[in-house]
Amino acid sequence: MKKLFHYSVLSVLSILLLSCSHSIKGEGEITNKEIKISPIKEISANGTFRLIYLFDGNNPRIVIESYKNLIQNLKIENSDGKLTLSETNNVKDSDLYNIYIYNPQIEKFDIHNLVNVDINSQLRVSKLTINLYDVSKFLANTIVVDELNVNVNDVAGISLKGTSNALNLTAEDTSNFMAPFLEVSEANIELSDVAKAEINVKSKLTGKISDNSSLTVIGNPAKDIQQKDLAVINFK
Fold it and tell me: Which keywords does this chain's UniProt record carry (predicted)?
């Protein structure tokens, strides 16, 4: 566990150092650029921008709000229902770097580096998958799903509100999953290293927490969860 934790911290530090040593800053005029896209079900994002999702079932598009040189630096791929966003050169200390995604419902997010995701519309899908890495963040105020699969790594963090029939959560390293206002019927949880999670479970809680991880549970579900090492479970 210690080796894994140290490796995770060193990996994140390496990303940050690389960003500082080979990076550009926003220069010139601030502008908007709109790009039409085909409807997508999946987003993969790697960079230092803020990603804002807004529902639009009729006119899928991207609107980029930033400095002209940062917009030119952005790499965009749109094919087979997947949108991939990345940067040619790393971006440092930008005070305005927003990417708005207008699209029907999205089912999968793979988020890396320093990307911050804001879900500003209701996200209603049968199955939602969220994978977070590095120092990325994910915030959603209203999700309505049957099955929610979340994988959080490194020092990434996620905050969710809404409802889900089933939650499958894996959290490692120093990541955190905060969802006291996400009402879940059944949850299967696996926490390790020093990961933290707060969940609201009605019916059934299963899984395992180990190392120095901590879990806070709201509700009184039936429990079948293993607690190992110095891991802590708190019930509210």
Answer: Signal
